[in-house]
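Hi U.,

Before I forget, here's the chain from the pilot set. I'm dumping it here mostly so it's searchable later in email.
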Amino acid sequence: MILNSNHQKPVSELRFDLVSKDWVVIATGRDQRPETFAQQRIREEAPAKDCPFCHLETQTQPLLEYKNEKGEREVAVIPNRYPAFSHSDSLHERAEGPYSIMDGVGFHEVVITRDHQKSLAEMNVSQVRRVIDAYQERYLELANEKFVNYVSIFVNHGREAGASLSHPHSQIIAIPLIDPDLQRSINGSRLFFENQGECVHCKMLEWDLEDKRRIIFENKEFVVLAPFASRVAFEVRIYSKEHHAYFERIKDRAKDQLAEALQIALNKIFKGLNDPAYNFFIHTAPSDGKDYGHYHWHFEILPKTSIWAGFELGAGIEISTVEPEKAAEYLREIKN
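Structure:
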């Protein structure tokens, strides 16, 4: 397909790697020159008086907001001012030599909490529940949009984890593709189900709940644990004890339990590791209409306890410097 003169330049392109079979995002819309990378400096954190997230009343009307009993905005969802993907009526797929390209079509939103200083780890359970409500409500809305086959929900906490603003926030990106990490997880789950006739995550949970060494916290509905094959020191995952493939179908009762599990997991990391930078995300079945009944949705929390160096980058094998059993024992003892 030839780019026509009426086609608006997208904020990004998706390019297909012929060897790995993965898609990567190239931010074409930001027009950043290569030499600017040599000029970049780590910027100072903006105080609350200059923080754009503290002054949403001067910005676009929120897509979604929840207010507290005082009428104060507690959670708001707005479009990202610098999106990695943008809405379009066409994917504009095309070839360039042996390569495949499509426009970075999708949605990019920010979930903002009220307090400039207080992260999810420091909030109470009811406040975390409001954030989970926002995740679910926006997921259900975005999953029905044209070209959206996957909705990614994640948090970058701290500069080392990729946060460009210190004000606590989450991000939601809805895209036409399934990301490679999730695809590998889905493929592994499907293969285990085809060979063993059961969910691999349920099988792991059954053992871990019996073994107890890697369990950090559990309530009636959810379990927080250090995975057996942790990729980084103090990696934490949150699983539903019952088998469910789709996060967006979570019931109200379970959301209360999830909010407790998430708050406790993040608070233990916050206190036990002195507020480290971390990334967390939800791995859930895609919204492309296919059957993913074999999958088991969950949260993954990855503290920045290591840096990918030559071996990790070259071999693709991550090195964790703390045994998951010792990490779980340490975090268990941290009082909320």
